TrEMBL record:
Organism per entry: Chara braunii (Braun's stonewort)
Protein name: Uncharacterized protein
Residue ranges, annotated region (Disordered): 1-29
Length: 277
């Protein structure tokens, strides 16, 4: 399977030096008080493309109503919403706080919008909602679009393990997806504080963001992770984003690369809810 040009480069490639992601750039999970918000992830419920067994990864096809949730997927999403409410209560976030503190952010694909709608229907109050294009499905390229998922997904994932910087022809690599997913959380960290945020997205993007977080979740924040005023900064995702040099190439630490290559170690079933950070 031919791939497009790699975005990854050794530290000396491109203009100047590409800084690696090191543990000193990373933050611990929010329970340690480092991140400003708490994050959950939710894969969309069972969709019509799931039932047909076809790849629907382009934005053009993904937003079409006929590619939304199957009836069973809507029920799955409602159950996920009930579980999310239960976990919010366990985290000490009561109903009085939900209208201002709960944010649901979604991919623009019809299957994720249907999922988000079903989740919001089980809340007794109206919560914050935003569509974020960067949460969209990983694009697998024109050759795989509307083709057999059972045939093509294993091929892509095998390549991912060998080279997480190389995507399918015309499609996105693991690194491409990691950068845009990390950018979403980096922005939310800057704009919001003290919120419970649910990211409603797709299988590969959510596997990849979990893989990107893994090295950082395993590492304690070092003293260099503090600003001079003593406050914490959201270095968890900034560390990844700052690896991009002027040529659009990426330098990644060994730990980050190994984790991204193994993103299939963090699969999610349809409508599966999981705490991210």
């Amino acid at each position: 399977m031919a791939g497009r040009a790699s975005r990854c480069a050794p530290p000396t490639a491109g203009r100047g030096t590409v800084p690696p992601v090191s543990s000193s750039q990373c933050a611990s999970p929010p329970r340690s008080g480092i991140l400003r918000n708490r994050y959950w992830i939710l894969r969309h419920g069972r969709s019509i493309p799931n039932e047909k067994g076809v790849v629907v990864s382009s934005l053009e096809n993904g937003v079409r109503p006929e590619n939304g949730l199957a009836p069973v997927g809507i029920e799955q999403a409602k159950e996920a919403g009930k579980k999310f409410i239960k976990e919010l209560k366990e985290e000490g976030l009561g109903e009085a706080d939900w209208a201002n503190k709960v944010h649901i952010v979604s991919s623009p694909f019809s299957r994720t919008l249907d999922t988000s709608t079903a989740v919001m229907q089980v809340f007794p109050v109206k919560v914050k909602f935003e569509v974020i294009p960067e949460l969209r499905e990983r694009y697998f390229g024109p050759a795989m679009e509307l083709q057999s998922a059972d045939k093509w997904y294993p091929v892509v994932w095998q390549v991912d393990r060998a080279d997480y910087c190389r995507g399918p022809e015309g499609g996105e690599s693991v690194v491409d997806v990691a950068i845009r997913m990390a950018g979403v959380v980096a922005r939310l960290e800057k704009e919001l504080k003290g919120c419970a945020i649910l990211l409603v997205s797709h299988g590969d993007p959510l596997q990849i963001i979990q893989a990107a977080c893994k090295p950082f979740k395993d590492t304690q924040l070092q003293s260099s992770g503090r600003k001079q005023d003593g406050s914490s900064r959201p270095q968890l995702f900034d560390g990844l984003l700052n690896c991009i040099n002027q040529n659009g190439q990426v330098g990644l630490s060994c730990e980050m690369g190994k984790s991204l290559a193994r993103h299939r170690d963090w699969p999610l079933e349809t409508a599966e809810l999981r705490r991210l950070l």
